[in-house]
Amino acid sequence: MQHITILISNNMCWITSIQTRLQLSDGSYTDTDSLKLVHDPHGSGYVLQVFYQSGTRTNYDTHGHSCPSSSTGPCHRGAQFYVMPPSLYHKGKTFAALEYEVFFKSGFNFAIGGKLPGLWGGTRDSCKGCSGEAHSCFSTRLMWRADGHYEVYAYIPYNQDGGFKHWCDRYEHDHKKVICPATTCGTEIGLTSTDAFKFKPGQWYRIRQEVNLGHPNQHGRVTLWVNDIMVVNMNSIVLRQSSSVHIDGMFFSTFYGGKSTDFGKHGDTYSYFKNFRITDEKKPVHSGEYFVGK
Fold this sequence. Notes:
Polysaccharide lyase 14 domain-containing protein, globular, mainly beta, seven-stranded antiparallel sheet, 3% helix, Jelly Rolls, 1 helix
């Protein structure tokens, strides 16, 4: 039987079989035949392959019909589920690091963007869909953007320093270090803007994300490394309002979208994932904020 394994810092493992993957679904992606274990396209061993069918985006199939209720065809949009390791879930953790590697198929068309896994905590159903202004949860997925640029895409409370608009304006005016949503969707943190810092098809990238929630209504920290280079370190961000919100695991989420039809302007394509690890080990981080190229 084939398995996906998530390694935890105390050598425990979270394991699920591909054959029972529907038990992992959060309800928004019920057709998960997008997932397969295949040989590494640029190495050895098995890796997790994700299939994105031509034209799909968020909750829509290749014909633009809502999935799965009104869909007239397959809904191979990617995959989405929560990983809740027993050593982390409901353990009151306020710090964790997520590591994994991602590979985009040669010729991968990034269109205008799509999601990648990140950490999450709190009430699960509040952390999917356009659920910014999150009061009972947080999530810190990544996004790829046009031409392979990338960012942290966070669902966070709106009670930031001086109010959400003031906080957003301060960062947006400072080289667009943060781009805030026009609707209650995610907040974009640290979008890269140079060719030196973007995903390129046909090679593996090592991702490491650290989240320190801090105290409720006080500053936490989000840090991102790509290929061992720190690209984002933000430490003036409120990540939770309640002491009941903790880090509960990984939100495995990958698809094209947003809802705009421009997200669906891509052909059949694949990404690949391997070497997932969730740990409480910290990497050294300098005290100041940092946004690469900003």
